[in-house]
Amino acid sequence: MKTKKFILLAGIGILLQSCFSYDDEGGTRYVELQLTDAFNFENDKNYSVGDTIFVELNFSRYLEEEGFSNLLDVYESTDSEEFFYPLELLKYSAISDSYVFTEIADRFIFAEKGTVEEFYGATARLNDARDTYESRIGIILAEEGSYRLNSQFFDLQSKWNFDKVSIEIIHQFSDKTQEDFEFVVSD
Questions:
Q1: Taking the model in full, what pTM does it have?
Q2: How far apart are CA 74 and CA 150, in angstroms?
Q3: What is the CATH code for 28-186?
Q4: What residue spans define the domains of the chain?
Q5: Rounded to the nearest 5 degrees, what angle is found at the Cα of 142, between the Cα atoms of 171 and 109?
Q6: Which of 28, 102, 118, 142 lies deepest, with the highest CB count within 10 Å?
């Protein structure tokens, strides 16, 4: 009986030892890229209830990769025809004296290019020419207030594929501040 317990414990120990790994990425291959000024928001600063604002995103499927002279084909690398990005609308709250997240009902957000996704995001889809990822999302302004599009987290993520590289694209604005994404909606 003691021999059986010893063999069982030794077997469990060997199994647990074989599970140990320094691979924190879970076996996936991961690439992080940088992208500058791919988002466009034509901000008029003052809108009326019922107006629609648009956020556009366009970027080439061929992007620079740090340390390499050739451009990386993100479509070939990921096999992903779309990249997800968060799209958050913030509304000023006097109680908190700050901008707070505002959920957008489905009837007030739509996609002319790309798609609107769950979890407060959208996707940029590879166009028919298969050279550019594109997104144009409209938000219908349904109520008064001071708003801001959250421009701090416009990072893009490829669809996960076990057999391909996962790519995250960190987006940066070269000459925009948070104030460039603030606007007022009046009745």
A1: 0.80
A2: 25
A3: 2.60.40
A4: 28-186
A5: 45
A6: 102
